[in-house]
Amino acid sequence: MAETPHSHHRPELHLTAEDGLLFAPAGVLLDGDTWHVFHQYRPEPDAGPRWAHQFSEQAPFVWDICDDVLAPKGGETQLRAGSVVANKGGVDLYYTSVTEAGSTIHVARIEDLAPTTETVSENALDLDAGVIRIGKVVSDTEQYTNFRSPCVIPDWEDEDNREDGHEGWLMLAVSGPSDKPTLVILSSADGRDWAVSGPLSFKGLTGLSDDAVLVSPRLIRLRDEVDHEIYDVLIVTIERDGVDISGYVVGQLNNTEFDVVTPFTRIDHGHDFSRPRNTNYTEGTQKVEERYAQAHIFGLMNGIGRLDDPTRHKSWKEEGWANTISVPRVVTLQDGTLFQTPPAGLLEAIYESDAAAGWTGLCEIPAGSSVSIELRDQKRNTAAIIHHRHHELVIDRSMNPYYEGEAVALAPLSAEDTDSLFIVVDGSTVEVFADGGDVSMASRVYFENGPIYNFEVTTSGDATIVNSQAHYPDDFSTVGLPDLDELTQFDADEHPHEGPVR
């Protein structure tokens, strides 16, 4: 395949489909220092969804293309999301197979993962020969139909003593009609023969309405840093009025009953973060004593979800691709609250990139005050503004011609937390981490005259910036900057400190 042309909409550090329309991460596996992301995509708008495979060694910012691993065949019309787990020295791929008769859960197998990263076929649609389909493992029962979106994780060896470790497998899947789905728990000793345990039920206040449409369920296990207990974190996406709202519920899953500790809480308050996926790990990747200290999640940077038409995206119309996956987020649990921070190495990746950028700041923002950071393009036009207003964090892109008049994205902030910000701008993606990871926001932002030129920072009221730094590539000066004399919306005398400064 021809080399992808340079563009300013396509991010460098985030994962996108090489060509075509990306729909969601399907499964993520961390093998030592190598990240493997399997994702759904359509090579063309009218093609059936397939599974692609990309990997990144060391830090998860430079992604290499592998051959696709799954494509529809026989009577299949779609291959949809699933889960990827390490099992008995190989890798199992659980996926949703869709035919005219409905959906069922199948499994495929990669006995040796390493060769899948070594060679790539010249034909972009060729499938990796090392991926073997095993077949259907979950299908309709008398009570449940149309199984889909499986999340597979190791089961507990002893449900009454979580310190004993794991044995066998647990699956959380969706069943039933799309407008009224049911979450179902299944179990298996070997990952092949699955038995339905029953529908997922809740004990305690969930914060979810009885008619909430829950999709894309995921489970992660974390040890709370305050009480040191191991909890289950149920991550779900609510489909509501054409918009996806993703969040989490903290508690403990006992057989099929989820004993709630923390009710549903938004996981991201930006315009575009949906259907987060957990990361599974190969044996030895995590030290036993650190197994529940942290986890990693990826999200689709698209807030509309199933009802979105990616062919209307600016990136598709101008550059032939649509949608991206967030950077992996390191998640920890503190007193029942999920904290999310960017992965190690992100600043170094920005310095080594061509045009990504970041801004870090520690501030003191009393009530009634604010710190605002404008994201300026190469002609010094404002593409978006991030406001930290003591009690709320805002991403406003309504001044951008592509999002003209759109509502702002808003997240509540805790007044007790440190007023800090970490902003990452990469192509048409913006991710913001505030107050030590208490709040995260992701939004797509198109820079009409890209890439980003600088961060313009202002304060109001009694707000002060204790320290801050803008982060740009080491060779940022090589980016094609327009001559100031040609700019029509920038006054150099009014803004004497404009410009990229490391």
Strand content: over 45%
Find the CATH superfamily of the largest domain. Answer: Glycosyl hydrolase domain, family 43
Average per-residue pLDDT, rounded, comes to 91
Structural class: mainly beta
The CATH topology of the largest domain is what? Tachylectin-2, Chain A
**CATH top level of the largest domain?**
Mainly Beta
Query: Helicity level, as a percent range?
Result: under 10%
End-to-end C-alpha gap: 37 Å
**Unreliable residue stretches:** 1-5, 478-502
Radius of gyration from the alpha-carbon trace, in angstroms? 23 Å
Tally of individual helices: 2
Please provide a written account of the structure.
This protein has 502 residues and is mainly beta. It has 2 domains: 15-337, Tachylectin-2, Chain A (5 Propeller), CATH 2.115.10; 355-486, Jelly Rolls, CATH 2.60.120. It is built from 2 helices and 34 strands. The protein has helices at residues 314-319, 346-352, and strands at residues 15-16, 20-31, 34-42, 50-57, 64-65, 78-87, 90-99, 102-110, 131-138, 148-156, 166-175, 182-188, 195-199, 201-203, 214-223, 230-240, 243-254, 257-266, 274-281, 295-300, 321-322, 324-325, 329-334, 337-341, 357-364, 370-376, 382-388, 392-396, 409-412, 419-426, 429-434, 439-444, 454-460, 464-471. Strands 2, 3, 4, 5, 19, 20, 21, 23 and 24 form a 9-stranded mixed sheet that branches. The two termini are 37 Å apart.
